[in-house]
Amino acid sequence: MLQINDIVTTYGAIEALRGVTLEANDGEITCLLGPNGAGKTTLMMTIAGVLHPREGSIRFNDESITNSSSSDIVKKGIALVPENRLVFPEMNVRDNLIAGAYSRLSKDKAVVHEDIDALYHRFPRLKEREKQLAGTLSGGEQQMLAVARALMSKPSLLLMDEPSLGLAPLVVEEVFQIIRELHQDGTSILLVEQNAHMALQVANRFCLLDQGQVTFSGKPGQLAENELIQRAYLGGKQAS
Questions:
Q1: How many domains would you assign to the chain?
Q2: Nearest-angstrom CA–CA distance, 154 and 78
Q3: DSSP symbol at 238
C-alpha cells in the first residue's frame, strides 16, 4: 500500500531523515516507535506532502507521490491527524468537519453533510458541541475532532501522529478504542505513538526509528516488550 524507499528529508543542512525505508500494508495498523527527535513527525509530514524529500521515493497504491502536493495526496486517499491535534480553534465543530472535506465539497456537498451526520453517530460528543468553537473543547474532544476531520476526506490510509499525547489515561483508552474501531471498519493506519504499551496492543507491525533511520521492523512479539521499549526510548543496543 505505502512503500517508502531511502527517504532523506532535510531542514537546511540538517538531515532529519537519513535513508528511511519502510512499508505500511493495506488493512494493517503499522506503528512507528522511537524517542523524541528521532524523525517520526518529519516522516509523517513528508508522507503527507507538507515536506518534500531531498532523496528517495514514496509510492502509494503503486503510484509515486514523492513530490505531490499535500492537497493531491489527500485526494489520493491519505489523511494526516497531526501532532497536538491542530484543530481550527476559531471555527466551530461543524465547520472544522466541513474543512476536512474541502477536496470533495464542490462535487459532493449533500454527501458531505451526510458524512458529518455519520461521524456524529460515531462521535456523539461532537454532535453535542456542534456549534462550539473548537478551541474551547477539551483535549480529548479536540483529538476526536481532529480524527473526524481527517476522516471527512474518506482516506484509505490514516496517518496519526501522537494521538494520545497530553491526554488523561481514561481519554487515552478512548482514543485507542477509536483506533481499533477504525481498523475494524477497514481503514489502514500508520501510527506514531509514545505510549508503546498501548500501541503494541493494536499494531500488526511496528518499526523503530532512531536518529532519522529505521533500526528494526517486525511484528509485535518478535522482540520482548521490555527489550523493545528499551530500544525505542531508552537507548538500548540497536538491532544489527
A1: 1
A2: 8
A3: P
pLDDT band at 240 (very low <50, low <70, confident <90, very high): very low
**Residue 96 exposed, middle or buried by CB count within 10 Å (0-12, 13-18, 19+):** buried
What is the 8-class DSSP label of residue 218? E
* CATH label of the domain that carries residue 161: 3.40.50.300
pLDDT band of residue 90 (cuts 50, 70, 90) is very high
CB 191 within 8 A of CB 32: yes
SS3 50: coil
211 within domain boundaries: yes
**H helices then E strands: how many in the chain?**
9, 10
What's the one-letter identity of residue 124? P
Query: Nearest to residue 29, comparing CAs of 146, 162, 179, 218?
Result: 179
Judge whether 22 and 40 are in contact, CB under 8 Å: no
Residue 188 near residue 1, CB atoms below 8 Å: yes
Give me the helix-helix angle, 139-151 and 109-122, nearest 10°.
Answer: 140
Give burial (CB, 10 Å; 0-12/13-18/19+) of 54. exposed
